[in-house]
## 1
Amino acid sequence: MTRHGGYTGGKMASTYESFRLHTTPEKFYMEACDDDDSVDDVLVIDRVSTEMTLAVRTDIPVSADSKPVCGIMGTIRLVAGTYLIVITKKMKVGDLLGHAVWKALDFEIIPYKKTILHLTDSQMQDNKTFLAMISNVLHTDAFYFATDCDLTHTLQRLANTSPEFQDMSLLERADQRFVWNGHLLREFINQPELHKFVFPVIHGFVSIQPCCINLKGFEWSIISRRSCFRAGVRYYVRGIDVEGHAANFVETEQIVQYKGAKASFVQTRGSIPFYWSQRPNLKYKPKPQISKAINHLDGFQRHFDSQIILYGRQVILNLINQKGSEKPLELAFDKMVTGLANSMIKYIAFDFHKECSRMRWHRLQILVDMVTEIQDEFGYFLVDVDGKVLQSQEGTFRSNCMDCLDRTNVIQSLLARRALQSQLQRMGLLHSGQKIEEQTNFEKMYKNAWADNADACAKQYAGTGALKTDFTRTGRRTYLGLLMDGWNSMIRYYKNNFSDGFRQDSIDLFLGNYAVDEADWVTPLHDLKDWKFLTLPIIMVVAFSMCIICLLMAGDTWTETLAYILFWGTASIVTGGLILFNGRDFVDAPRLVQKEKLD
């Protein structure tokens, strides 16, 4: 990786920080309300033509309805026309490199058109469904933004940029992999004069914590950036696409700031990078299917070519089971890395569940010890107080389990702690021989932040908090943690089978993978189910109810009662079996994007 002699800290042209939205029947006026008296800019959006122009404060009609807003998320076209999405509530997370980082808490979706009476009843219902989808994504924790700080790039990438790059607006220079409102801002991108009114928003997790060790104050941060390429939900989005983008890809950066010096350590996670699927079918754990009709090595190579360009050498930590239904995936992964024969890629398989079975979580140290030498070679990014780059990170660990959530986060937190131990010693925050584990207050904060990171990523992908967070929070596995994992697993089962189709459609609509054509609208939302969808569940419920009634209200003889129980019990089992056999017909599947595109 290229090393530069100086680090600028990522200076760029900032956007406006606060706004006031003025609304008239014909136009929206977004007034910049920064403290600087010289600011007089107003963004004007025509609600009929959708044209966007600049004006000054005096152009705002006195009759306009006014309210403060925190920023513009973007615009989107639905059946009823275009909608403006604004951030109405925010919370400060902390200061990163001296710049405020905010979490968006609430939003408002405002229609351009004043009425929807021009729509048919069917169109009105579809528009209502689309609005619910957009709202579903907006209220999936957690969206973050900054108005004068680039959250989409790592410190090391920012250090390797040109002065021209640093003069760009936040929108122009952002890493498009992590801009979740990129599709919503498409109308702004081609008008540079409007860029000061909008900013990129990332999805994932941000924690910025003031800390103290040995009476020395510093800031510790963790930023997880969730990719918007091949984004989706557990089971419906697995593997990679033809461009090599992996499902549930997350870049996680751990940052330390102390007296002007900065250090960071970057890791990535992502789905097993070839073509495979695991469609929900009412079974607790659907069997993974590896596609046989596609050349896996092409997409596999595209994925790792881009990873090497972005991050340097790659060490793959594959944490899935090496037996049962997961075994074919491990064998295929190993075979493809061998077939690629790239010296920049190293593959390590570690059967997490086997090694840590029966609460033997201390055995995770086996994997940490296995990669110690490689991690020391990779190093981390370090800048001194004068802005001089002392060290760059030469490679990353790419971790995965099946979902890239629970097992993955545990391992990432252990590797991050090891990097942090070295960083704090080198920056003079830890004395020689001191261990992070001995710093009680910091260790508690560190574990909780990584567990919160796990929960955030898990909620966005699987619909519940992460599993195994008791170990991340406390350093040991507990029986209460096992019970909580069981509860979360049950919730995941329900959501993955009965609500994730809607969630997947919501993400595809929000990110622009599906576009509504209001001029030629043919609804894909009304998916007509065949006779099995209602008939079989009704028969099963009736049969099971009759079985219970026969048990409670015995007949004249036990022979008669047993015959009724056997009949209705058999009917329940047979219909239940038929439902499971036709499981895919009963789950909530995506409707907006063809299933083949998700495989």
## 2
Amino acid sequence: MAEQNMEAKLKTWLKQEKIQLWNPPYTDDNNQPGQQHMQELAERYAPLMCLPVQEVGGALESIRVQAVKRGKGNVTFRQTNVATLELLLPRDSKKDPKTKNHLETRLDVLVQEVVDRIADEFGLKHIKLILNGKTLCVDQRLDEQGVKNHSKMMVLKVSDAEWKQQLSEDEEKKKNQNESIQRTQKGFQILSERDGSEDTTPFLEIADQRGNPLKIPHTEKKALILAMGFHEKGRSLMKKKQFENALCHLLQADQQFSKCGSALLGSVDNFAVLQLDIVWCYRALEALSCLDDGKSRLQRAEDCFLQCYGEQQQRLLMIKGNTGREQVLFLRLYLLQSLLSFLEGNDAQARHQLTKVESLYSRLCPDSEKMAQLMALGFTEREARLGLRACQGDLQEAAIHISNQRQEREELRQRERQRRSRRMEVISTLTELGFSRRDAARALHHADGDVDKAYGILLDSSQASQMTNNNTEGAGSPERVEQLLYLGFDREASEAALRLTGGDVQSATQLLLDNQGVLSPELLSASPPSSSSPSPSSEEPSTSSNSTADSELVNEVLEDISRHEEDYLDLTLEEESQLIANMKTYLSRGPTHTV
């Protein structure tokens, strides 16, 4: 890390002065160093870095050699498609610790071929290759896994016992990771499709900062629930220090967020928090090669916070009454920005950000004595920590604030219970009139809770269904199929939807919309409604969402959702404290000195 910082600074100065070390007078025709001019450069830069001339000269020579090799490698790659890779070998395998090792290879070969060459050339038995913090799969090509000309690859030795164990563990780990992602996705998909028609069945709603349900288009709501579900799972894994698995889930969340409209993302801070969590995982995994991606993610997070909270956080103040609890997000943002600035060799910017971090830390780090006093009053550790931050450390104000929050949460729960109870009553009333609970719930949803409007929707649907049942042309008549084709659905799905809904075009359309135009095998295996049914669908469940397996899956993913709406703000700052201490050490050796 210190070498990276020093070389980054030297490269910046060389670039500013337009000095090209790979050209004369710094490199002669035989690619050897121009000793006098290299010495003069070292003597000029050494005082600026507060380092010995010899150390700076060694770093400059390292940069020069890299530049010469890179130039030769570029020519070779252009002419022959043979790339030059830099190998970071195990310490005990290096002949000269200061000499960098390179390997020339085409990029369209399997990783196993490169592994065999490295093992043979450097006398290593079992090895694995690491690129950008990820282990390369031996049964895939180099270019398929992001390896490029001049890529740096870490070579790790593996013992015989570890090798056998690793083969089985890698297979098991990949299987578990993929299974975890699939189970998380399926669980939240089931939840995203539920409409609350069953009083005992869990379902999810998207709410604002005050807990009020938000009206969001169906497809966007499904994507948002999946995104938030993957995010919650990733955060749960982060708490267990399983950062690699957490990162996989967080990146899945990022993909789902990309399906949401920019207006929605600009009104909630979830997307910004996700960007911070992804970069925090990069840091934990020491994936310094993800520097560029991390920098752009932090910028997106900062822009999103600005849009959500307002330039002076006035929107946040208006919604929540204070901004103290959200300050931990800015602490982590500035801390990560400080780290990335340091890795780029920009010590001044790193110090500037770290000053902001320390100022926030002094205000946000909980006072243990005040925490104990609040907990003695019956408040939880989380309540005490968040309360003190919200009230800038004022003990009495924090106690009042926590009590008010408890009361507000209880009132919100009561309103939600009453709202759901009223909804169940309306659905039951409509059911008594001969409609199925599922259709009644759907109609009520489309009518925005208006019972008369919902009844009208159901009546129209029932009459259309009756006409369909009396129609000799059958459920899948060409006219009805053509109507669905006109709406953009494919023929096979349209015909299946019409069969399942007894030929009712409106219900078939809704069914296709609810399933994004693709009917699952479970739906296709369901029986169509009987002709005596007064509504397009019968009381029998048409999907497997009520099955035991699905119930277990839903309960599993619900375990990862925090029961406290501000869990993402409840950072203990222990990890941040350690990184702050490390950054102060890195930057403590003078204005431009490296560690």
## 3
Amino acid sequence: MDSYSLLYSSSHRTRLLAGFQHLRSEGNMCDVVLEVGGVSYPCHRALLASSSEYFWALFGETTAERLAGSISLPALTPEGLDAILDFLYSGWLRISSPTLPVVLEAARYLQVETAVSICERFLTDGLNTDNCCCYANLAEHHALSDALEAANQTIAMEMGTLLKESRNDLLGLNIQSLMVVLDADEIPGVKEVELIKLALDWLDENGPLPLLKSNLLLSHLRFGLVAPSDLKDLSHAHRAMATPLIRSQLTRALEYHRLGSAQPIRQSKQSTLRGSPNRVLLVGGGSSPDWPEQQMLSFDPRSRKFSPLSSSLPLRLRNHCVCSVGGFLFVIGGKEVKEGDENGKKCVTVATSKQVWRYDPRFDHWETMESMLERREKFTCCVVDDVIYAIGGRHARPDGNTHTSIASVEFYDMATGAWRRGATMPHPLYGHASAVLDNGVYVSGGRSANQGGSYPGDNPDNHSREVLFWDLKGRVWEKRASMSIGRFSHRMATAQGYIYALLGMYEPFCDIEQYDSESDHWTRLRPLLTGSFNYGVVSMPSGNLLVFGGRRWSDGQEVIVKSVLEYDTKTDRWREICQLPRPLTGTECTLLPLPD
């Protein structure tokens, strides 16, 4: 067989289309006329059939239109057909926001799928507050799934603006999009009662709907996010709210509000806040280690911006613990710092606390819960299966000048709202750290007693390297491999199936360590950028660790820092990602869904 070469010319296709376009503009060799709205378009039957499934079927061998000289397309507009014909003859689609509906209608009707894809991309790329509702209706009508998803997401994120400026657009939204939006986990800046009012107004505007459809629509609302006083009035607000299904949901929401301490463990979608789940909440601390502030800061990892919460801590605390369970924040124990008056002079008093405060971000509300069995500061807490464990710590003796370290452990039973005793540690500890891995609790470092040094942490030789483990099933703590460095007032965090031990007070080096529970082995990793302590730390869902503020030594003096550091556990690298609004030390961190 003789060999040969096969060569391709990319310019031939362009010249071919240009030739057909020239013939059409001159009216030469056209063998069919398309008529729309009184306008005639001479075309070439072969090019139409090769470019459109519609025309391929229309000009088939058994159709009446096979040899017809003119064909009427009453379903289309001249503007839409003209744009599609230009596309078929040139490959260029002329489209704008005002012409998008008619061009998309023509492309879909004539089954020119390439033009439909271009319209969908134009729709998705051009989404904004002004057109998102219109584009959602277009995407739903023409079954453009990707564009519809993008439009629905834009509506949810811009709902606050739309309710104020474009309410009529929302009332004209298709029911599928409205249900998706009402099911969204993030709708920034909008209270649930506003969404309920929107849904009821939409029913008035688009109703009456069959009972099944109205129930389905209203079932996407989260009645657990509505205050009890408002819930009682909702059943009479609209006839659609009086159906048995919706009344039962209102009843369940009222029952949820009456659960008290059990609310965090009885969460459902109807009581879950519509907000970013990865907000970091910084609780307590201040620009001075001796005078903690009451303001709380929220950190958005996406924008790397801080914002103060409207609510503040009910009291000034240091050496406290925080955790989140079921969308609630718990602030536990610590030293309460108060301004007092002694012999006519202002003074500061400090007392170890056993109080427990719970913060509900849904209603910006603080509530005192059952106090711990013992007063604790410099202790550690962790959460396992929605149970809070408070471990060790210390409290002031009656003389107020010395402290007693404790080995006791207690846990908070949310079903009954009571603290109960857990397995006591082998010996008292304070200034230790804890982490949870595989439903077990690990405790490391700390000190057993106030020995040596003017400050209990200033002698690194007295810092413990010991690691204890409690699997929660038994009543005993077991020893695990010790850290390579003795640590006090340090931090531990769990990420990607490992435990990380970070710096404590007055450590001579900046090394951190990683613990592998399978091999029971610690490995030293890349040191922290600068030696610091008394910072806040949180483990992100991505597996990275964030470190907020703290104190470090500079020229023989303690300096409070503003830096926010990120540790990438996959690459063992540190970097500074942003800075705090002000220097901050002694803060405690947790992840908590917050309203935007």
